[in-house]
Amino acid sequence: MTTYKVGKVLHYINGKFVEGVAGKSFENINPFNNEVINEVAEGFAEDIDLAVKAAKKAFDDGPWGTMSVDERMKYILRIAALIEENAEEIAYLESLDTGLPISQTKKQASRAAENFRFYAQMVKSRMVGEAYKVDGDFINYTIYKPIGVAGLITPWNTPFMLETWKVAPALATGNTVVLKPAEWSPLTANKLAEIIHEAGLPEGVFNIVHGFGETAGESLVRHSDVRLISFTGETTTGAEIIKNSADTLKKTSMELGGKSPAIIFADADLEKALDAVVWGVFSLNGERCTANSRLFLEKSIYDSFVERLKERVQNISVGDPLDSSTELGPLIHKKHWETVLNYIEIAKKEGAEVFSGNVPQSLKNGNFVPPTLLLNCHNGMKVAQEEIFGPVMAVIPFETEEEVIKMANDVKYGLAAYVWTNNLKLGHRIVQSIESGMAWVNSQNVRDLRIPFGGTKYSGIGREGGHYSFDFYTEVQVIHVAIGDHHIPQFGKSKKAETISAQQ
Ligand code: NAD
């Protein structure tokens, strides 16, 4: 495999790669061996201020907002083409930085290019207003306008895909952007800046400030010239961001944590269900917001299905994320690794039977957690309620439809749900009863870019994706045009007339 050189990562502000004002930097660690990959410029409020000023100037005075849609979309399509040209390097950097297996990061690189292509098409074909004829008096019509400086804050799981998922609609609709990527995964965000630089976007339209959440992230959220914040990350961080954005009345979109159920009935296609749930929790190293981290099995198939799960878990190929045969790589960071291992200990204390696959001894320097099943759980356990965000699945038996719906909903999250049955009526009934933003029947998580993405309860507020992103990244303005001779109240007119006549 080709390896790529990784140098110091700098901020990208006003069309230039720059050091931070304070001149500080932090180390970026390789999850495979815990060695330093490179240094990253560390941003603070001063750097955020420079980036926001550049983005505001580009929005207020620059050509971005005023150029024709066709011209703007040429830039968006150029970014998509450059992502495709650089897909191999992007996948390599992502796997090196996050520990995600390269076979999976390659798919995400192409998905990222699609995000830009898709929004170029959507803006041209679907960013349309409405018109109302109000009797013979008025025409009312609506237009969508970009809002201004968009603050985008992203997590470390699938960083490149999630960054492009926000950057593409924000730019395509005419906003300017300041992106604060996750501190544990800066490499592909930097590559995106290089690509956007090469695509020749006007200065200040796209900016990145690297750094930590409590400093760089919070300054972006509090900045008075940032009009909206799109955030993906943990629920507690989302709550903090909503509070901190209140004083400056920002629009916020929250894509947060999950603890999604997969429910398998005895009549389902069990082979397919097995493939889907194993993939659903162990792909992306289990660091997937929509992972089916709670598996509900109908009691009559519990034992046989668990046996099949155990076989799969033992065979999952755990290894170097840069090896194309690896299915499960190391977790992003030592701290997160400790958190996930701690949950496995909690599961034991709570009385679950812990069944784990194997991690070769040669991988001992990396943040590896074996694929793990927590068997014979009940829904009240901490490990069945809290987001573990690793390759760990709690397995719970159920007997009736009512019972499983109750358990599936008895959790604070509501992101995704998966139901497996060949009974059409039952399938629809169950998914419609589940409190989740998204649900799949007889399928793993497959998503067309046109549909809304997001969660309910503690999993988020709002939807992005498809034309739903327009609701977030644009402001709708209504224009009322009089076309007839409608009545206008004549305040003051009649009294004046009376006074004049009294004086006469
Ligand atoms: P995190 O909340 O710790 O960090 C996410 C981002 O927020 C980072 O860039 C971080 O620096 C920044 N941040 C932290 N504190 C901040 C603050 N006070 N103000 C502003 N910014 C701040 O999340 P993470 O650990 O990077 O990501 C994992 C989480 O993301 C999981 O809970 C997962 O479920 C969730 N996630 C959700 C979705 C979804 O679409 N619903 C998708 C992917 C990940």
Automatic annotation (TrEMBL):
Keywords: NAD, Oxidoreductase
Domain Aldehyde dehydrogenase: 19-478
Gene3D superfamilies, sorted: Aldehyde Dehydrogenase, Chain A, domain 1, Aldehyde Dehydrogenase, Chain A, domain 2
Record-annotated active site: E255
InterPro entries to which the protein is assigned, alphabetical: Ald_DH/histidinol_DH, Ald_DH_C, Ald_DH_CS_CYS, Ald_DH_CS_GLU, Ald_DH_N, Aldehyde_DH_dom, DH_HpaE
Family: Belongs to the aldehyde dehydrogenase family.
NCBIfam families named in the record: HpaE
Protein name, per record: 5-carboxymethyl-2-hydroxymuconate semialdehyde dehydrogenase
Source species of the chain: Aeribacillus composti
Recorded name of the encoding gene: hpaE
